[in-house]
């Protein structure tokens, strides 16, 4: 679990209390970053096919590219928008590309490697990095360290030192205790958030670091600082860094060792940055003095804004042919061939890989629980507002159904109150959708970086959802205390406790439904609509609007029996009516009882008569509890399957 408490106890004076030399050592050098196993990553004949959006025909967005980056080097993938650089980056990192077909070879030390192996030794920084807005900068880095390295390998003291060092190195001292930021609570700036995203991956000590637009949202100075730090880390520790980058400044561009220029998915140049000017001079495009080389290269291969497509495309084809015929390409091919001739497998990765250096499954789950705990009590939208919503619902029900009397005229209002309270409690669980979608985005990023799988997410999410930082219990308790006694439901502590239990199970099932649909459709609007639709279906088939005896066969057997609201409604009805009696009115000297029971001669209605109308029998409470828990487990297992298949 996070050592956040230790960080706070020891203090966090980033400006003077931490020795600068220790910081630099912890960030840029040392055993935790030193790469002694990976000498190169190379790729050849990489081609990616997709379906054309308009014609449906196969379209190559990456076309037989090749390259090699050796230990200690930082390589830039450049090109105009849509040139295929992000797709290539995903292929190199063995990440999903949503492509129709992917061909070619990606080699580590000249040998093919599995997806699992490359995930163990690498990290990937997304262009839009998924960070939890309700965590501070310091907590974000600390949890990243806890999820990537076992406490048996990295002590709490070393982890704290690494966190502090990265905060200082990335210029985030003043923001260390600032929240990343939520939709209603301002946090760090966009540029600072990008730096946190990069730092959170570097703290995992990868051998290979992939970055998609790492300078996005940064000014030129911050871009240079970030890339300068990464370049220094690569050289001092023999790391390999490959980054797609759009339009770097001259100073940032010169930090790279190698550059690959793509246009239309094809290679136009690959090699040392220092060789760019010589290559383009040789093909008749000398770079003018005092010109940003990166801008010159991009303008040369960008045809998006040309007036005449035909001549421009011929010019692009010529430049691509010139690269294919150049000595630089032959040098690249020779380097790849040499790496393959000296191929050796990665047998040890001190940075991230072998079993024993990664956290155990239990440790990962505990870390996720701790992170969810902090996220929960700070997430105003998901929790504080939800509590206010449910409390308001309780007040509304308590005052609308105010002080009902145990009389025949109150029987139907009692039933209506039970249904309305339970149904709308579950319906309002849609407020949990954005909170889980944030967790899912974080999971996708961390899964692709090899930190944990769907099991850890589902287990931790379910465990935190049982007491859920007291949230569902607190919601159910507040709602029950306010509404139960105002309405005058069945008096007594036992009856109140059973009512509270059913509300809690109702919320647990409703949130499990949210988890399933949000996993299946990770879109706020779609998930919200489907959860609302499902709740409407459950309300219609629960047995209140249409009694089980009247409900048509299709809905009865297709939905009624696995409708959690049906079992909650039945449990509440039995709790309310099984042991109560209700007075009948006397009209013209006769008892006018709507329900015929053995107490009719006394002008009373035994509550069992009401239950008989719905076909509910007492004595089945624990069976029904088991059924609801089975439904909850079913939703969670279904969510696990979806998360395991859709990443």
TrEMBL record:
Signal peptide (UniProt feature, chain positions): none
UniProt cross-references to InterPro entries, sorted A to Z: AAA+_ATPase, ABC2_TM, ABC_transporter-like_ATP-bd, ABC_transporter-like_CS, ABCG_dom, P-loop_NTPase, Plant_ABCG
PROSITE patterns in alphabetical order: ABC_TRANSPORTER_1, ABC_TRANSPORTER_2
Pfam families (UniProt xref): ABC2_membrane, ABC2_membrane_7, ABC_tran
Recorded topology in the membrane: Multi-pass membrane protein
SUPFAM superfamilies documented for this protein: P-loop containing nucleoside triphosphate hydrolases
Domain ABC transporter: 41-289
Region of interest (Disordered), residue spans: 1-20
Gene Ontology CC annotations of this record: membrane
Compartments reported by the entry: Membrane
Positions of transmembrane segments: 380-402, 414-435, 447-464, 524-546, 621-643
Keywords assigned by UniProt, alphabetized: ATP-binding, Hydrolase, Membrane, Nucleotide-binding, Transmembrane, Transmembrane helix, Transport
A GO molecular-function descriptor: ABC-type transporter activity
Superkingdom field: Eukaryota
Similarity comment text for this entry: Belongs to the ABC transporter superfamily. ABCG family. Eye pigment precursor importer (TC 3.A.1.204) subfamily.
Full protein name: p-loop containing nucleoside triphosphate hydrolase protein
Biological source species: Pseudomassariella vexata
């Amino acid at each position: 679990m996070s050592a956040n408490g230790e960080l706070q106890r020891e203090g966090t004076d980033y400006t003077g209390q931490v020795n600068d030399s220790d910081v630099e050592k912890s960030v840029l050098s040392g055993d935790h970053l030193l790469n002694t196993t990976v000498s190169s990553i190379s790729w050849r004949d990489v081609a990616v096919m997709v379906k054309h959006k308009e014609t449906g025909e196969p379209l190559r967005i990456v076309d037989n590219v090749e390259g090699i980056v050796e230990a200690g080097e930082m390589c830039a993938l450049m090109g105009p928008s849509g040139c295929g650089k992000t797709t290539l980056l995903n292929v190199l990192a063995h990440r999903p590309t949503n492509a129709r077909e992917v061909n070619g070879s990606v080699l580590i030390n000249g040998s093919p490697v599995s997806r699992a192996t490359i995930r163990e030794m690498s990290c990937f920084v997304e262009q839009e990095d998924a960070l939890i807005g309700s965590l501070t900068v310091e907590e974000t880095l600390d949890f990243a360290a806890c999820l990537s390295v076992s406490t048996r390998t990295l002590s709490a003291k070393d982890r704290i030192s690494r966190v502090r060092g990265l905060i200082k190195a990335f210029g985030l001292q003043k923001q260390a205790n600032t929240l990343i930021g939520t939709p209603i609570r301002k946090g760090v700036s966009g540029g600072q958030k990008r730096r946190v995203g990069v730092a959170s991956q570097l703290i995992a000590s990868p051998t290979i670091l992939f970055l998609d637009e790492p300078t996005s949202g940064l000014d030129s100075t911050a871009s240079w600082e970030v890339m300068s730090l990464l370049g220094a880390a690569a050289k001092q520790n023999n790391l390999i860094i490959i980054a797609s980058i759009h339009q770097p400044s001259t100073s940032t561009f010169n930090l790279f060792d190698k550059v690959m220029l793509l246009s239309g998915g094809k290679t136009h140049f690959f090699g040392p940055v220092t060789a760019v000017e010589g290559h383009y001079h040789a093909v008749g495009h000398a770079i003018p003095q005092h010109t940003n080389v990166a801008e010159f290269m991009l303008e040369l291969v960008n045809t998006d804004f040309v007036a005449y497509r035909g001549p421009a495309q011929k010019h692009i084809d010529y430049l691509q042919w010139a690269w294919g015929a150049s000595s630089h390409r032959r040098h690249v091919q020779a380097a790849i061939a040499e790496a393959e001739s000296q191929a050796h497998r990665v047998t040890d990765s001190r940075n991230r890989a072998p079993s024993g250096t990664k956290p155990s499954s239990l440790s990962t789950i505990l870390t996720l629980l701790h992170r969810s705990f902090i996220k929960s009590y700070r997430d105003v939208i998901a929790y504080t507002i939800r509590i206010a919503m449910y409390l308001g619902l309780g007040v509304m029900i308590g005052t609308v159904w105010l002080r009902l009397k145990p009389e025949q005229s109150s029987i139907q209002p009692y039933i209506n109150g039970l249904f309305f309270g339970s149904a709308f409690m579950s319906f309002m669980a849609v407020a949990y959708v954005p909170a889980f979608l944030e967790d899912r985005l974080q999971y996708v990023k961390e899964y692709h970086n090899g930190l944990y799988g769907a099991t850890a997410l589902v287990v931790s999410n379910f465990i935190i959802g049982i007491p859920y930082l007291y949230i569902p219990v607190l919601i159910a308790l507040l709602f029950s205390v306010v509404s139960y006694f105002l309405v005058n439901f069945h008096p007594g502590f036992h009856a109140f406790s059973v009512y509270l239990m059913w509300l809690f199970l109702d919320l647990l099932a409703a949130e499990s439904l949210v988890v399933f649909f949000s996993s299946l459709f990770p879109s706020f609007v779609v998930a919200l609509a489907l959860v609302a639709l499902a709740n409407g279906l459950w309300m219609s088939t629960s047995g209140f609007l249409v009694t089980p005896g009247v409900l048509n066969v299709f809905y009865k057997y297709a939905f009624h029996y696995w409708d959690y609201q049906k079992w909650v409604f039945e449990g509440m009805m039995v709790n309310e009516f099984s042991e109560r009696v209700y007075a009948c009115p006397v009209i013209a000297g006769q008892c006018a009882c709507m329900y015929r029971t053995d107490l009719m001669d006394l002008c009373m209605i035994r509550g069992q008569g009401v239950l008989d109308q719905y076909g509910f029998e007492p004595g089945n409470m624990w069976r029904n509890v088991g059924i609801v828990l089975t439904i909850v487990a079913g939703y969670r297992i279904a969510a696990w399957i979806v998360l395991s298949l859709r990443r």
